[in-house]
């Protein structure tokens, strides 16, 4: 399914270690830290911590574990009191790390040691959103595919080059290590875990209780920001990248970009990867698809015209890349977009000529965080109080 990646999608990995004597498959430990967002923390607490056996969902035993001493204050100002510490994780068959508080802050070493030990003893390790940074810091993502919130995917790829970061996926299941994209994608991954453990019927029943779809098609691409990564702004390659964005309506390739940078293709590829964590050919395909997405939303151009205005050699090429990245055809995307768009009396662009590049003020550039969607090179471009809590 587009937007998700499971162990069967890639090369086989070594079989996970069997659970040690104390660990039980039905026990899920959620590792909580101060400074984390309340939403991501609440997802595993709700999915695994509420008894829904009346709905046909087998019960898990949840352990809310504090990764630090004292009250755990969330970003919304609420304080959580975890009834367990790190030692309780030794009983868990699954350990979930919700979003980490800051991608610039190193996780506590004792927590990392606990995660490594859990993995060695056969536990399934799960990182939601920026929880992937904690798993990566523990070395659990080395040589593996993984995802995180699209905003932070370039940073994860640069900081941990041995991790095969794929910002297109809603979640990645690599067997004993799983990661999800941002925010609501954590629900998708937790439902997937229930489906893996207990089947489609149980996962569907849980999804109905949560009032969410049991499976979502597509990936993160529809939510991606079109702005450039901060890191490239002061580099000589910035001029070439800016030129490429202004000329997406033209058919040019990486050799053209390399020549404008006065580099060989090999050197250009290497420098581009160092700056962005992705290959230039995949970045270029993504930008063309994003431009096509914008024109589908704001114009009456036919799909054939949009293909030409976005530099695709044919409508077939546009349709193929669009479906791979966004999980639908261009026509279906336009129909769905217009069906949910409120009538605002605005006019659609129908004038001839290439679509203009966005003005500078149209590029959102929030400070101190990476914001560009980048595709990785490994993909083809073409029992606690929570147990008793009320809940759905």
UniProtKB/TrEMBL annotation:
<feature type="domain" description="HTH araC/xylS-type">
    <location>
        <begin position="238"/>
        <end position="336"/>
    </location>
</feature>
<dbReference type="InterPro" id="IPR018062">
    <property type="entry name" value="HTH_AraC-typ_CS"/>
</dbReference>
<dbReference type="InterPro" id="IPR052158">
    <property type="entry name" value="INH-QAR"/>
</dbReference>
<dbReference type="GO" id="GO:0003700">
    <property type="term" value="F:DNA-binding transcription factor activity"/>
</dbReference>
<keyword id="KW-0238">DNA-binding</keyword>
<protein>
    <submittedName>
        <fullName>Helix-turn-helix domain-containing protein</fullName>
    </submittedName>
</protein>
<dbReference type="Pfam" id="PF01965">
    <property type="entry name" value="DJ-1_PfpI"/>
</dbReference>
<dbReference type="Pfam" id="PF12833">
    <property type="entry name" value="HTH_18"/>
</dbReference>
<feature type="region of interest" description="Disordered">
    <location>
        <begin position="1"/>
        <end position="20"/>
    </location>
</feature>
<keyword id="KW-0804">Transcription</keyword>
<dbReference type="InterPro" id="IPR002818">
    <property type="entry name" value="DJ-1/PfpI"/>
</dbReference>
<feature type="compositionally biased region" description="Polar residues">
    <location>
        <begin position="380"/>
        <end position="392"/>
    </location>
</feature>
<dbReference type="InterPro" id="IPR018060">
    <property type="entry name" value="HTH_AraC"/>
</dbReference>
<keyword id="KW-0805">Transcription regulation</keyword>
<dbReference type="InterPro" id="IPR009057">
    <property type="entry name" value="Homeodomain-like_sf"/>
</dbReference>
<feature type="compositionally biased region" description="Basic and acidic residues">
    <location>
        <begin position="1"/>
        <end position="10"/>
    </location>
</feature>
<dbReference type="InterPro" id="IPR029062">
    <property type="entry name" value="Class_I_gatase-like"/>
</dbReference>
<dbReference type="GO" id="GO:0043565">
    <property type="term" value="F:sequence-specific DNA binding"/>
</dbReference>
<feature type="region of interest" description="Disordered">
    <location>
        <begin position="338"/>
        <end position="392"/>
    </location>
</feature>
């Amino acid at each position: 399914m587009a937007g998700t990646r499971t162990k069967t999608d890639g090369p086989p990995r070594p079989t996970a270690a069997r659970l040690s004597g104390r660990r039980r498959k039905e026990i899920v430990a959620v590792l909580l830290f101060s400074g984390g967002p309340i939403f991501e923390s609440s997802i595993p607490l709700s999915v695994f911590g509420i008894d829904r056996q009346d709905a046909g969902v087998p019960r898990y035993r949840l352990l809310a574990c504090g990764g630090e001493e004292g009250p755990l204050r969330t970003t919304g100002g609420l304080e959580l009191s975890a009834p367990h510490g790190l030692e309780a994780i030794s009983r868990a068959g699954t350990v979930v790390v919700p979003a980490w508080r800051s991608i610039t802050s190193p996780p506590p070493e004792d927590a990392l040691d606990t995660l490594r030990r859990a993995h060695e003893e056969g536990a399934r390790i799960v990182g939601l959103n920026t929880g992937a940074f904690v798993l990566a810091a523990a070395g659990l993502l080395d040589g593996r595919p993984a995802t995180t919130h699209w905003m932070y995917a370039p940073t994860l790829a640069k900081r941990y080059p041995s991790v095969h970061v794929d910002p297109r996926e809603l979640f990645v299941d690599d067997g004993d290590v799983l990661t999800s994209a941002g925010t609501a994608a954590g629900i998708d991954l937790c439902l997937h875990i229930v489906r893996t453990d207990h089947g489609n019927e149980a996962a569907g029943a849980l999804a109905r209780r949560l009032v969410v779809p049991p499976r979502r098609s597509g990936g993160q691409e529809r939510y991606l920001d079109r702005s450039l990564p901060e890191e490239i702004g002061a580099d000589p390659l910035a001029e070439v990248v800016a030129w490429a964005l202004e000329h997406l309506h033209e058919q040019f390739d990486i050799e053209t970009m390399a020549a404008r940078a006065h580099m060989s293709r090999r050197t250009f590829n290497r420098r581009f990867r160092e700056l962005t964590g992705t290959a230039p050919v995949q970045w270029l395909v993504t930008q063309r698809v994003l431009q096509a997405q914008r024109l589908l939303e704001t114009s009456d151009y036919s799909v054939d015209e949009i293909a030409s205005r976005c530099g695709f050699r044919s409508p077939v090429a546009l349709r193929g890349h669009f479906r791979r990245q966004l999980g639908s055809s261009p026509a279906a995307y336009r129909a769905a977009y217009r069906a949910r768009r409120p009538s605002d009396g605005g006019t659609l662009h129908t004038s001839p000529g290439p679509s203009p590049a966005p003005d500078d003020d149209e590029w959102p550039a929030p400070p101190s965080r990476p914001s560009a969607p980048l595709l990785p090179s490994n993909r083809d471009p073409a029992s606690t109080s929570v147990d008793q809590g009320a809940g759905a």
